[in-house]
Amino acid sequence: MKKVKVFTSAGCPHCDEVKSHLANQSIDFEEIDLTQNQKESALLVQKTGYTVVPQIQIGDKFVIGFDREKIEELLQED
Description:
Layout: E1 4-8, H1 13-24, E2 30-33, H2 38-48, E3 55-58, E4 61-64, H3 68-76
Parallel strand pairs: 1-2
Antiparallel strand pairs: 1-3, 3-4
């Protein structure tokens, strides 16, 4: 299975939705809270060009926001 990272910030309701969705699907993920992590936040902007959260990294691809269809599509890819 591909490695999944969820980039979040404190108080973000869409971040909570993504985490619940992945947990309900029994998908292991690493949460990276950008609230106190400026370095990781800057790296994410360099990679994606976006400052919004949530962002979900599946393998080497990114989903910006909580896009259920896109998340499922990337999880199914080989």
